[in-house]
């Protein structure tokens, strides 16, 4: 009788263990699914690259940018286009653990990137940069280097949270930079700042 009771308890313990393990796996899959949805919702390209060069993650924007800027290259989940791979490999070797930004000319125009070290490899942010007519306009308004960078991303429609992720900064820090930008541009909203920069750029081109 005692043995039968102990056997039942052991069986119940095993079932509880399997239920807990199943619950843990389910929650982990839910977290992964949620994270993946957040990454795909970003309006910037994001890739995770192992030290050996294999791509382990690409969000939807990264896939779209690679298709536009490297149309001759077949989309392969584990590899970068050769031209981009060479830039990433060279920067990784040169900088070690430092962050580096770069800009390259492609078949479709220009592509800007930022390479940052992560555990086991690198993260690569990709985006199409703002128009080349903008730097002089923003310099004349007295914007700092960081403010010009943030203004450029704002003009690409990026939110403070997205900009913070690209610059590996705090959203509150980006928010303060945006406040300074609005004050220097003498407007009260992001949309008004973008419109003013565009307007000044058009005037500059017409006078050139």
Describe this structure in words.
With 208 residues, the protein is of the alpha+beta class. It has three domains: 1-31; 40-127, Beta-Lactamase; 134-207, Winged helix-like DNA-binding domain superfamily/Winged helix DNA-binding domain (Arc Repressor Mutant, subunit A, Orthogonal Bundle). Helices cover 59% and strands 16% of the residues. The protein is built from eight helices and five strands. The chain has helices spanning 2-41, 60-69, 82-95, 134-140, 145-154, 160-167, 171-185, 190-207; strands spanning 45-50, 55-58, 100-106, 109-118, 121-127. The protein has a five-stranded antiparallel sheet with strand order 2-1-5-4-3. α5 (145-154) packs across α7 (171-185), α6 packs across α7 (171-185) and α7 (171-185) packs across α8. The model has no long low-confidence stretch (mean pLDDT 77).
């Amino acid at each position: 009788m005692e043995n039968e009771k102990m056997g039942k308890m052991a069986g119940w313990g095993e079932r509880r263990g399997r239920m807990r393990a199943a619950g843990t796996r389910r929650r982990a899959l839910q977290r992964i699914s949620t994270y993946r949805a957040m990454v795909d919702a970003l309006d910037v390209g994001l890739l995770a690259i192992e030290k050996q060069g294999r791509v382990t993650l690409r969000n939807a924007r990264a896939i779209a940018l690679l298709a536009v800027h490297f149309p001759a290259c077949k989309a392969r989940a584990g590899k970068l286009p050769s031209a981009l791979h060479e830039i990433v490999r060279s920067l990784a070797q040169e900088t070690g653990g430092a962050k580096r930004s770069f800009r390259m000319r492609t078949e479709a125009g220009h592509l800007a990137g930022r390479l940052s070290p992560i555990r086991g490899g690198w993260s690569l942010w990709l985006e199409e940069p703002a128009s080349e007519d903008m730097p002089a306009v923003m310099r004349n308004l007295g914007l700092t280097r960081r403010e010009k960078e943030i203004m450029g991303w704002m003009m690409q429609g990026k939110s403070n949270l997205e900009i913070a992720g690209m610059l590996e900064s705090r959203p509150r820090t980006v928010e303060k930079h945006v406040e300074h930008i609005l004050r220097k541009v003498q407007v009260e909203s992001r949309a008004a700042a973008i419109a003013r920069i565009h307007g000044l750029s058009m005037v500059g081109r017409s006078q050139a």
